[in-house]
User: Which sequence fits this backbone?
């Protein structure tokens, strides 16, 4: 299927009900067919990986086409120019998170962009920086702890941003790092406690929410099991 065939398929699958559901979740897009993610995943399995198609779909401007672009893109072919261009076009948390989670966190530039974008003044570009941190914490199995520890000062600074979609990205990054292993949990909890004690509302929310998860018996038990497996 080429771009035009994919867009025609998406148009046939779209519904007004799904479009209305997007609005309830804060997914604002200039152009959307109203296709659920399950259908997009099914189509991706038929399409496989095709980076040229991914670029064409992104350029179309349709919300679901952009989600599909993240699914069919090839991480090893991602360029800095492409990342900058796509990030500048983010419309909502859905395209931002999907591109980071499904494509960019596996690219050679994920670590660089996580640091750089965490200081951006642009809403979804800044969110992307912290979402990449969270995705790297969950997906990069070989990265040393020091790389994640270097993110913590950026997270603490980012927590001052009162914008809802930024602070939720910051929170996700902090929780993701704290769930990785016991030493990183300890370091993340120290940051979370400082944030929770803040007089400002945004960092206080980030810290308290992260603390509830990172100090919970469930997470502590998971980390203990992970530590035991690593030592055997």
Assistant:
């Amino acid at each position: 299927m080429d771009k035009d065939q994919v867009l025609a398929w998406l148009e046939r699958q779209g519904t007004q009900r799904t479009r209305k559901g997007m609005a309830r979740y804060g997914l604002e897009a200039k152009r959307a067919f109203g296709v659920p993610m399950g259908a997009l995943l099914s189509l991706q399995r038929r399409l496989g990986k095709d980076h040229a198609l991914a670029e064409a779909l992104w350029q179309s401007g349709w919300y679901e086409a952009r989600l599909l672009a993240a699914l069919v893109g090839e991480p090893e072919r991602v360029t800095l120019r492409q990342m900058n261009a796509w990030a500048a076009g983010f419309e909502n948390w859905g395209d931002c998170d999907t591109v980071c989670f499904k494509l960019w966190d596996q690219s050679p530039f994920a670590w660089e962009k996580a640091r750089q974008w965490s200081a951006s003044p642009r809403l979804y570009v800044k969110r992307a920086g912290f979402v990449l941190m969270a995705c790297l914490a969950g997906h990069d199995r070989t990265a040393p702890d020091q790389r994640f520890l270097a993110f913590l000062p950026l997270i603490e600074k980012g927590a001052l941003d009162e914008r809802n979609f930024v602070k939720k990205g910051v929170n996700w990054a902090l929780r993701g790092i704290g769930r990785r292993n016991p030493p990183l949990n300890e370091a993340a909890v120290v940051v979370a406690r400082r944030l929770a004690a803040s007089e400002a509302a945004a960092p206080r929310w980030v810290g308290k929410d992260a603390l509830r998860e990172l100090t919970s018996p469930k997470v502590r038990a998971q980390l203990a099991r992970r530590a035991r497996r690593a030592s055997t």
About this structure: The mean pLDDT is 96.
